[in-house]
């Protein structure tokens, strides 16, 4: 799954329609670094038992790296309700809490075949459609990496799900679940 994220980012970086996204910021690199870090934490937990504080520290590291490379949660767009600005002093904290919260939420629901990937697939397609609307209304610009990340997540889930239904032939483990989160 992580190789799919990195490959998709690499391919997108060579495409003309994504030039603005890759040339104007380091967010794509932040997605790549955050993905590798969170998968490393999950992989260590899959292979050896990692204590919850150590796992949390790794998730915080991944979220912090993403923040340092420009991925921030500084405003929340509420459908049909406007947007809520998060102050600059709270942005790093909210960003890291969001990454940790989503990674753990998806990891917690990864108990049944196809559940986590199915939910993330549906959510990412929904987010992709919503971000298309935000783009059409000129609320987000072409440099926003959110729609690309949603498309990558949807593609990963679509590629993973056929092999994860009963009888499952592959499992994502903590590494894949936290990556999807």
What order do the SSEs take from the amino end to the carboxyl end, as H and E?
HHHHEEHHHH
Oligomer: single chain
State the helical fraction: 55-70%
Enumerate the strands of the largest sheet in spatial order, edge to edge or round the barrel: 1-2
Q: Could you tell me the radius of gyration in angstroms?
A: 16 Å
Strand portion, in percent? under 5%
The span between the termini is 12 Å
- Helix/strand-derived category reads mainly alpha
What is the overall number of helices? 8
How is this structure best described in words?
It is globular and about 45 Å long. The protein has eight helices and two strands; from the N terminus they run H-H-H-H-E-E-H-H-H-H. The mean pLDDT is 93. Helix 3 packs antiparallel against helix 8. Strand 1 and strand 2 form a beta hairpin. The chain has 181 residues and is mainly α.
Labels describing this entry:
4% strand; single chain; mainly alpha; globular
SSE blueprint and pairings:
Layout (H helix, E strand, L loop, with lengths): L1 H12 L5 H5 L3 H21 L4 H17 L6 E4 L3 E4 L5 H19 L5 H22 L9 H15 L12 H8 L1
Antiparallel strand pairs: 1-2
Helix pairs in contact: 1-3, 3-4, 3-8, 4-5, 5-8, 6-7
